[in-house]
Design brief:
heterodimer; A: alpha/beta; D-Maltodextrin-Binding Protein, domain 2; ten-stranded mixed β-sheet; 19 helices; B: mainly alpha; MetI-like fold; globular
């Protein structure tokens, strides 16, 4: 589906050149790449369905106008897109040139199979790369995601998702509760805000298997733990992991709405939108509906808080998308131009301003002019910037991420009805370690 | 299935000599269909069986492991749970629509005002897309915002957790299946009811039979073969049900509604473990075949009883 209208090439080129000039100081706009070098190329792009995919598709005519490269793009729901990508890339002749990937699920798998083209040389080539596109403009998490063990950049970091806490300011004021700054305060606040007789609950987060794992890892990181050590051994039954699971169990059984064991983000969001839930912990990208009067009963009452500090450190679990070109593609340079356009200042600003995603590029996030255009409250932008400072990868960089999430997710869901966190985590760890060992064998 | 078909054949007689002679020249007529069947049915199955004997991870290599994947199934607790969920779901999702379908067919077989309109209304759920239905039901099941708990509150029943609790998730999913597929059973049984002759009823009335006696001794035995057909269709549909469960719960909470089909999907397409996934598919296929043979055997018995009554 395409939206919007094509804008003038000159306007676009001018905007990008101005961005290049304005941000790089001494660098001049003439350092722009030869956008037209691959004119006439046909490029197939496979995107993930969602605000990020939609933004790229909406403006792809502008890319064609700028480069003369024709784009055929397709948006596929996340789960199906991942499966399709793996099957096609395994076949050795994928139907697409450019692929939008989820780093937190696919990074290690793509790296090990070397499915993506190496951008390292392209990045150094001024005929191909805009002057402002430098490695140090990407946040640390972005570089961690995009680079492989050998330091090669095989994709460009596109959009980052930090985990944070949405809170209902009105409920907090009514109960005289302050926004929690530590895990202990989080529990106290959640329990104070809970009033089942009036259908009010202090806290909500995902309880559904698989989807719930980032909630637990967010706590686990705050306790100073990690999921997998450098030797590839699971650290998921350590005291830190058990404490995190206990916290998860306590919050979701004592302060969350009934039925939370089956809640994914959408059910959490629905509950929060009704104004009956004090806090909702999830990714930063879910803010726009909260401020939409047609969908929300809490417009203007939402607070955006950085994750409270754990006993060891304050961490915002981080997830992210990247965009790369298939190694098997014969249009690598043209594909690279598309990736570069996707992460450009213009496109990143559009994404941020609509609240559809947060660019990994610091020059976009920190630009006051860009921030002015953000439709969400300034507090949200502050929260994003604050989260970026305490960001750590929210899932282990392993191949069987989905199986990891399913195995530990089942244990976490079980905790919501019965069970001992230590025993369940031990069982899940024993079950998953052989799977992990086999994946790297 | 082959064996049951063979049983229905008349006593084997040697083909006439002329047909035997012509046998060779008939192959060109059979061959196209044979090639299609071999390539779209036999080959995928043979390949699945071959894959089930291999350790094969997408993105990695493959190696022959014999029956190791099947051995793994014996100790895989998640598979055992999935097996139990499949049987539980199938049993409920067959019995409820069949009983309600039979009852509604009897109701709609009567003559009453606006019968045609109400019949059309009744069969509407069957026409809707399962995933769309699933999304609507998922909203209706929401414990705080769903309309179902609101309706219960109107009659003083406390709110339920429906698909959001391990104990109630499968019966709640069966509710959706029942809502959607009772009309199919009703249509099949209605066809059966229309085909029943009126004479037995006339005789029964002369003999002074009550309404219940007529139903029990005439209607039910005569309509039973149709009920069995509906039960066979429902059983095969229910055992392989995927869309409704996946769209509403994705097998959750935890793995409380994960059937073999959903587990198979996760193993093959989320964990990319094609070898093990194929082993599950082979076992699942054998289960479906077993169920189909059992039901066909039951159907034959019902027909035999019918002949017995007639005789």
């Amino acid at each position: 589906m395409r939206f919007g209208r094509t804008t003038r090439r000159s306007v676009l080129a001018g905007t990008m050149a101005a961005g290049a000039f304005g941000l790089s100081g001494a660098r001049l706009a003439w350092a722009d790449p030869a956008w037209k070098a691959f004119e006439g190329t046909d490029l197939e792009v496979m995107l993930t369905k969602g605000p990020r995919g939609e933004t790229l598709q909406k403006y792809e005519d502008e890319f064609t106008e700028l480069t003369g490269i024709r784009v055929g793009s397709e948006q596929i729901p996340e789960q199906q897109q991942r499966q399709k990508a793996v099957i096609e890339l395994t076949s050795g002749s994928p139907s697409f040139d450019v692929i939008h990937l989820s780093y937190h699920v696919q990074k290690r798998q793509f790296e090990k199979a070397r499915w993506l083209a190496d951008f390292s040389q392209f990045l150094k080539d001024s005929n191909l790369t805009e002057a402002t596109l430098t490695e140090d403009d990407f946040s640390a998490a972005g570089l961690l995601y995009a680079k492989n063990d050998a330091g090669e950049m095989r994709s460009l970091p596109f959009s980052v998702d930090y985990w944070m806490v949405y809170y209902n300011k009105e409920m907090f004021e009514r109960k005289g509760v302050a926004y929690p700054t530590t895990f202990d305060e989080l529990v106290t606040a959640a329990e104070k805000l809970t009033d089942p007789a009036n259908g009010e609950y202090g806290f909500v987060a995902r309880g559904l298997r698989n989807a719930n794992v980032p909630v637990w890892t967010s706590f686990l990181l705050g306790y100073g733990g990690t999921m997998v050590d450098e030797q590839g051994q699971l650290k998921t039954d350590t005291p830190e992991a058990i404490e995190a699971a206990k916290l998860y169990q306590r919050l979701l059984t004592k302060s969350a709405p009934p039925g939370v064991a089956g809640f994914n983000w959408s059910e959490c969001q629905s509950a929060f939108l009704q104004g009956k839930v004090g806090m909702w912990m999830d990714g930063v990208g879910f803010a726009p509906p909260l401020e939409d009067p047609t969908k929300s009963r809490i417009v203007g009452k939402v607070g955006y808080g950085v994750m409270p500090k754990g006993p060891v450190k304050q961490v915002s679990a981080t997830f992210g998308d990247g965009i790369g070109v298939a190694e098997a593609s014969s249009n690598k340079e043209a594909g690279y131009l598309y990736c570069q356009w996707a992460v450009s200042k213009l496109m990143g600003s559009r994404l941020l301003q609509a609240g559809g995603g947060v660019p990994f590029r610091k020059s976009i996030l920190n630009d006051p002019e860009v921030r002015k255009g953000v439709t969400l409250p300034a507090e949200w932008v502050e929260c994003v910037a604050g989260s970026a400072e305490v960001s750590e990868l929210g899932l282990p960089v392993i191949i069987p991420v989905t199986e990891f999430r399913d195995t530990f997710g089942t244990a976490l869901t079980t905790l919501l009805s019965e069970g001992d966190p230590a025993a369940l985590l031990k069982q899940a760890t024993q079950q998953f370690q052989p799977v992990l060992d086999k994946s790297e064998a | 299935m082959t064996s049951s078909l063979a049983l229905e054949k008349p006593a084997a007689a040697a083909p006439p000599a002329s047909r035997r002679r012509a046998g060779g020249s008939l192959w060109p007529f059979v061959l196209p269909a044979l090639i299609v069947v071999a390539s779209v049915i036999v080959f995928p199955w043979a390949f699945t069986i071959w894959m089930s004997l291999n350790e094969w991870q997408i993105g990695g290599g493959s190696s022959f492991v014999g029956l190791a994947n099947f051995g793994r199934l014996l100790t895989d607790l998640r598979f055992h749970d999935a097996l139990w969920h499949t049987l539980y779901f199938t049993a409920l999702a067959v019995i409820l629509p069949v009983v309600l379908g039979l009852f509604s067919a009897i109701v709609f077989h009567q003559n009453f005002k606006a019968r045609g309109f109400l019949r059309a209304l009744f069969v509407m759920p069957m026409m809707a897309t399962p995933v769309a239905i699933a999304l609507v039901w998922a909203m209706m099941f929401h414990p705080q915002l769903g309309v179902l708990n609101y309706l219960l509150s109107l009659v003083g029943i406390p709110p339920q957790l429906w698909v959001f609790h391990p104990a109630t998730v499968i019966p709640s999913l069966v509710l959706v299946e029942t809502w959607q597929w009772t009309p199919l059973v009703m249509l099949i049984v209605l066809g059966g009811l229309a085909a029943i002759p009126t004479e037995p009823y006339e005789s029964a009335l002369i003999d002074g039979a009550s309404g219940w006696q007529m139903f029990w001794h005439i209607t039910l035995p005569l309509v039973l073969p149709f009920v069995m057909v509906a039960a066979i269709i429902r059983s095969i549909d229910a055992i392989k049900s995927f869309d409704i469960i996946y769209a509403i719960t994705q097998g959750g909470p935890g793995t409380a509604s994960e059937t073999i089909n959903l587990y198979l999907y996760s193993v093959a397409f989320a964990y990319y473990d094609i070898g093990y996934g194929s082993a599950i598919a082979v076992v699942f296929f054998l289960m479906v075949i077993g169920l189909a043979v059992l039901l066909l055997w039951l159907k034959k018995r019902v027909q035999w009883t019918e002949v017995g009554i007639g005789a």
